[in-house]
TrEMBL record:
GO molecular function annotation: hydrolase activity, acting on carbon-nitrogen (but not peptide) bonds
Protein name: Amidohydrolase-related domain-containing protein
Protein species of origin: Kockovaella imperatae
InterPro entries, sorted: Amidohydro-rel (IPR006680), Metal-dep_hydrolase_composite (IPR011059), Metal_Hydrolase (IPR032466), Metallo-dep_Hydrolase (IPR051781), OTAase-like (IPR057744)
Occurrences of domain Amidohydrolase-related (ranges): 113-465
Amino acid sequence: MQKITSALGSFEILDKDESLKSSHKDSPYDWDPPYWLPNPPPKDVDVEATPWIRPPQAAMSIVGVNVIDVENSKVLEKMTVKIKDGNIISIAKSQTKDMQEDGYASVDASGLYMCPGLIDCHTHLTATPGGTAAGGLRPHSETLTALQSTWVLKGMLARGFTTIRDVGGANRHYKDATAQWLIPGPRILQGGPVVSQSGGHGDEGNPDDDIPCCPINPTRASNTVGIVADGYDACLKVARKLMMAGADHIKICSSGGVASLTDKLESSQFTVAEIKAICDTCRMMGGTLVTAHCFTSEGARNAIEGGIGGIEHGNLIDEDTLRLMAKKGIHYTPTLIVCDLLSRPPFNSIIPPVSREKLTHVQKMGFVTLKKAHEVGVNIAYGTDCFSNMQPVQLSEFDLRASVLPSPVVLKHATCNAAKVIKMEGKVGCLKQGSFADFLLLSSNPLEDVTILSKPKEYLQGIVKDGRCVHSRVKGLRVEVSLV
């Protein structure tokens, strides 16, 4: 260490060896990325290392906290939750000694509520804001989209979503980026582009284009959220290619959509044989499930017959079909907030007049179908479908669902129910020994009023994902990864 005195005062500079040590500290709080190395470099430099990989998460103990048991809709009062290597290793009644236990950074969370990190099962993280309003649905630059998505991902995590399922747009590289903390963001389950028939909800082609003889090879325009496949063989091939590319699931379109211009909302899309080709492939190659964009009963029944595992939106599905879904264990992910936002200014400018006409047909029925699905026993997950400049309104889905269902039920949608959809029960959407250390610290009980989650500035005191704190207003809970 050298001391330097100047007209501006005195200061200290590190010796050469000390400066090298400072960029390789073991503490995740003091860790500095190796942005600089001398030449020649130190002998222990690993040229094959991924330099943004962080040190192991610091062990912490959250003491005196009220733990939300979402599965049983109850509160475990004054508990100590110990966290190490990104996992919860124990939950037990708090004791005085917990605040001084060696090896753990102890945090006094008395009076706060620990809620599992939220899960959004219907997102489009590559449908980024910026440019024209409709540009969020049809990005033009893959590079620009990737850069803009960093804002989307940070925002989702800042709102408390520690896990998301992207159902059209993202690929495994986005998933790897947040897993490695290259981009701070939620854990991502991705399926690549949504699969559509020609003229279906995911077909973004020009209706005035020439009509060639249909090839077996599936087609996809550069950097769109959809891929087109027609016929059994093409569906088989596109499913295999998506699974080869690392898809966790596959999403298809089995009915028309609101935002698409060339299909009727009530149209049924893909034959049962085509759907079966995709579902069988996903299952055989290790995917979680195939889920279907679908508004209608006929589209849902075709999808179920073909082996589908989930239905997205589903506003117009009748009670008999909902009972069939409950019987067969088909998951349901409604998306009320996107319909609400698109129905009025300023977001109604995102879609054209023909889409607004479709929207009036489905908006009110969404609440009816949600309530009936709950009554007949369908597993319901939280989904938003927010895209473009709607991304920050992601939490308001809680407000809409809470208008027709009790708070404990709605909280399950975004936690343990959603974990079933992505087949991560016991790891996410819960707080128990062995689960990932993904949780929120709240100043009020969401079981009593789930809408507090849509007011983060008032009630959200801390966010932890993989045991790493990204937001804190709690004394002693240090932010390891900043989201600003």
